Amino acid sequence: MSIQKTGRIDSWGPKIFLGSAAGDIASVCLTAPDKAADFAGQSRDILGVIDDLLDQMGSGRDQIVQVQVWLADMGDWPAFVPIWNDWVDPDAPPGLSVVRMDASRRDSLLEIRAWAMRTPVPA
Amino acid sequence: MITRSHTETMDGAYRALLCKSGNWVHMTGIQPRNLDGDIKEQAQDAINKLDELLREAGLTQADLFTVTIWLKDMRYFSGLNSVWNQWVDPANPPARTCVSGELYRPDLLLEIVAVAYKPEVAA
Q1: For residue A102, what is the nearest residue in chain B, using CA coordinates?
Q2: What is the CATH number of domain B3-117?
Q3: How confident is the model at residue B121 (pLDDT cuts 50, 70, 90)?
Q4: B108: closest chain A residue by CA
Q5: Which CATH class is domain A4-117?
Q6: A93 part of contact set with chain B, CB < 8 Å
């Protein structure tokens, strides 16, 4: 089976797909679609795109097994926690790792990667 | 079907330290418990925690597919490696990435993200 990709980006930066899936595993990784948004806006926008793209690949929020969050400023971590907690199922949350990084743009405040299981979608 | 365990929160954020689905086991955000320790003590403690999670899942270090270590500062690299080299099977060490990144607490010197693979034994 080939690799399914979704979320094509062709803007200021690299030509990439944000999501890809093969077999029973899907990955979505992105920075905020609107860098003018504040930290909460960027966080919610990214999580929303993860929802959409996982859905397109036969997966979903409840199928995520691992999330890596990179923050440009660890000072934003306390603001991230309630947004995250609203998004995950408190009884069945995914794994979470949070690390500070240098972003490609000053206005890019965080990047998130999610790994999820899925039911393969027939081509 | 995803099995999630160790769902204690990380600094208030919901997360599961271990998520298992099929042949894959994701262990995300493994941190040392003794944040007053130096790099060797913290590395040993995090690896002990990884060992406990592996044992619980019926796995050994030979089942590790990838290990990612987020290190607060690369100055700790040699200290980490001395503990790592004591732990690994010299004939079959795991694949590992180690990159520096500040973690959510300034006194947290490392965090481990490990993915293991083991074909499920038919019941």
Answers
A1: B101
A2: 3.30.1330.40
A3: low
A4: A99
A5: alpha beta
A6: yes
Whether this model's pTM surpasses 0.90: yes
For A82, name the nearest residue in chain B, comparing CA atoms only: B13
ipTM above 0.95, yes or no: no
Of B29, B51, B33, residue with least CA distance to B41 = B33
Q: In this complex, is the C-beta atom of A50 within 8 Å of any C-beta atom belonging to chain B?
A: no
Q: Domains of chain A: which residue ranges? A: 4-117
* Tens digit of each residue's pLDDT (9 = 90 or more) over A50-104: 999 999 999 999 999 999 999 999 999 999 999 999 999 999 999 999 999 999 8
Contact B101 A80 (CB under 8 A): no
Contact criterion met (CB < 8 Å) for B111 and A97: yes
Q: What is the DSSP string of A1-61?
A: ---EEEEEE-SSS--EEEEEEETTEEEEEEE-S-TTS-HHHHHHHHHHHHHHHHHHTT--G
